[in-house]
């Protein structure tokens, strides 16, 4: 049976989408691509006014390309409306993106905070407040800043690793819930080395490690 591709740029709160409909028989049904949820690489972008499906192009492999001219890239406090296109196969499955004007944000950075939780630190709520205040000022998100926290005293323990939390709000909430490890020793050098090289942290040469 013949099929018809239909772009719906105002679908889903203006995110846009694409439908594939059967042509000919009565009561023909349409299948929806669900671009907003099916394509994982689109999940981090602003949710409104992308208008996917405003442009549709045939692809040589039997699929097609759907474009969203108002897709925006967030870099810190700046938002760049660069546009983006998604490549889909004949079954409406996303297989890639085309975003030639998108670029790496200047705010891209990995930060692992090394936090002293030994008995010499008191009162602990001031540490939690200080940490939350700092983290709330970071531009945390995919492609921008990722934050991990390692707390130490006699031991060094990852409170959370890079990329576990994807927004500043999530990181600040996690910081408020960190309890003090305690311990009679303050093994700062050991903790910094652990934060820098441990695979679990996700950090390595080129990452920022801050102690506190």
What layout of secondary structure does this protein have?
Blueprint: E1 3-8, H1 11-14, E2 17-22, E3 30-32, H2 35-38, E4 55-58, E5 64-68, E6 73-75, E7 78-80, E8 84-88, E9 94-98, E10 109-116, H3 124-135, E11 145-152, E12 156-160, H4 168-176, H5 188-197, E13 208-211
Parallel strand pairs: 10-11, 10-13
Antiparallel strand pairs: 1-2, 2-3, 4-5, 5-8, 6-7, 8-9, 11-12
Helix pairs in contact: 3-4
Quaternary structure classification: single chain
Strand order of the largest sheet: 4-5-8-9
**Helical amount among residues, as a percent range?**
10-25%
Portion in beta strands:
25-35%
Distance between the termini: 66 Å
Specify the structural class.
Answer: alpha+beta
Number of helices: 5
Shape: elongated
Domains counted in the coordinates: how many?
2
Runs with pLDDT <50, length 5+? none
Describe the sheet with the most strands. Answer: 4 strands, antiparallel
Strand tally is 13
| Radius of gyration from CA coordinates | 23 Å
Characterization of the model:
This is ITA10 protein. It holds the Pfam family VWA. It comes from Anhinga anhinga. Residues 110-195 form the VWFA domain. This protein is elongated. With 212 residues, the chain is an alpha+beta fold. The protein is built from 5 helices and 13 strands. It folds into 2 domains: 3-98, no CATH class; 109-197, von Willebrand factor, type A domain (Rossmann fold), CATH 3.40.50.410. The model has no long low-confidence stretch (mean pLDDT 82). Helix content is 18%, strand content 31%. β8 and β9 form a beta hairpin. The strands form 4 sheets. A 4-stranded antiparallel sheet has the order 4-5-8-9, with no helix packed on it. Strands 12-11-10-13 form a 4-stranded mixed sheet, with helices on one face. Strands 1-2-3 form a 3-stranded antiparallel sheet, with no helix packed on it.
């Amino acid at each position: 049976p013949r099929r018809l591709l239909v772009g719906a740029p105002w679908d889903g709160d203006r995110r846009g989408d694409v439908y594939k409909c059967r042509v000919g028989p009565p009561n023909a049904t349409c299948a929806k691509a669900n671009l907003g949820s099916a394509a994982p690489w689109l999940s981090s972008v602003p949710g409104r006014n992308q208008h996917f499906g405003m442009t549709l192009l045939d692809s040589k492999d039997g699929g097609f390309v759907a474009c969203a001219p108002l897709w925006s890239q967030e870099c810190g406090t700046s938002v760049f409306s660069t546009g983006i296109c998604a490549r889909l196969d004949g079954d409406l499955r996303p297989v890639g993106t085309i975003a030639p004007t998108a670029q790496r944000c200047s705010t891209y950075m990995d930060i692992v905070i090394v936090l002293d939780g030994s008995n010499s630190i008191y009162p602990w709520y001031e540490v939690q407040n200080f940490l939350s205040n700092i983290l709330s000022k970071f531009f945390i998100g995919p492609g921008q800043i990722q934050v991990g926290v390692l707390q130490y005293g006699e031991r060094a323990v990852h409170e959370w690793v890079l990329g576990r939390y994807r927004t500043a709000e999530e990181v600040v909430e996690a910081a408020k819930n960190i309890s003090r490890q305690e311990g009679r020793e303050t093994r700062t050098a050991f903790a910094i080395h652990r934060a820098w090289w441990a695979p679990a942290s996700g950090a390595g040469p080129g990452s920022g490690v801050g102690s506190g």
